[in-house]
């Protein structure tokens, strides 16, 4: 039995020990420091964050902007999605860094190794909960009429709207509830997809068999 490493998560080999997740601050810090010692851990984090931020951002942009009609900078939908997703990529990076090893540990305790299903369910639910306040952060940072929204609008074209209204006629409680309800299945799927993608990218390359021997 080995202590859980990124190789157990993204390039499964060996059997990680089903240890309880550390709760004492010193043990917790040691756990994360040891986990992120390898390039594999950082590569897995980067790919996971890309998938969750940009694919998840597309779904959440559709929910909040198209379905609920919430306002943001007066820019094109693609630019708005890219802005929101990039802010999510930066802001939620530390959250994903904490969740990936935690989800892997939970999966090991459930099944003895990092099964994609268990990893995705645990990680997706945790990320959905962490991202639930997203509408509040969006409204404060890039809601229409905020400093950042005005500067982005001025840079990319379109009239600057000075008035900033929380929720844009949609109650913030409804926006947050919709974020959570949509986020759980969305992020479970994306955590599964990101794990599958990283594992596919890190498979050892095999030399093609010669046609003639």
| Biggest beta sheet summary | none
Q: What percentage of residues falls in helices of 4 or more residues?
A: 55-70%
What is the helix tally?
9
What would the principal axes of the Cα set say about the shape? elongated
Helix-strand sequence: HHHHHHHHH
Question: What report would you give on this structure?
Answer:
The protein is mostly helical and 213 residues long. The protein has one domain. The chain is built from 9 helices and no strands. Helix 6 runs antiparallel to helix 9.
Output the keywords.
213 residues; mainly alpha; 9 helices; elongated; disordered C terminus
Helices and strands in order, then pairings?
Layout: H1 6-10, H2 25-35, H3 39-67, H4 77-91, H5 93-111, H6 116-131, H7 134-142, H8 147-156, H9 172-201
Quick structural summary:
The chain has 213 residues and is mainly alpha-helical. It has helices at residues 6-10, 25-35, 39-67, 77-91, 93-111, 116-131, 134-142, 147-156, 172-201. Helix 5 packs antiparallel against helix 6 (116-131).
């Amino acid at each position: 039995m080995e202590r859980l490493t990124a190789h157990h998560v993204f390039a499964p080999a060996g059997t990680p020990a089903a240890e309880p997740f550390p709760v004492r601050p010193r043990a917790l810090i040691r756990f994360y420091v040891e986990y992120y010692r390898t390039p594999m851990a950082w590569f897995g984090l980067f790919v996971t964050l890309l998938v969750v931020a940009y694919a998840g951002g597309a779904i959440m942009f559709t929910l909040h902007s198209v379905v609920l009609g919430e306002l943001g900078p007066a820019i094109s939908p693609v630019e708005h999605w890219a802005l929101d997703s990039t802010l999510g990529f930066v802001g939620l990076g530390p959250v994903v860094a904490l969740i990936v090893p935690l989800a892997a540990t939970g999966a090991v305790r459930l099944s003895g190794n990092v099964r994609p299903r268990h990893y995705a369910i645990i990680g997706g639910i945790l990320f959905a909960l962490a991202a639930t306040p997203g509408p509040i952060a969006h409204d404060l940072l890039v809601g229409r009429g905020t400093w950042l929204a005005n500067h982005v609008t001025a840079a990319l074209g379109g009239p600057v709207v000075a008035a900033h209204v929380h929720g844009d006629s949609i109650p913030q409680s409804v926006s947050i509830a919709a974020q959570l309800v949509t986020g759980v299945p969305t992020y479970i799927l994306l955590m599964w997809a990101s794990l599958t993608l990283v594992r596919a990218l890190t498979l050892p390359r095999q030399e093609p068999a010669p046609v003639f021997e």
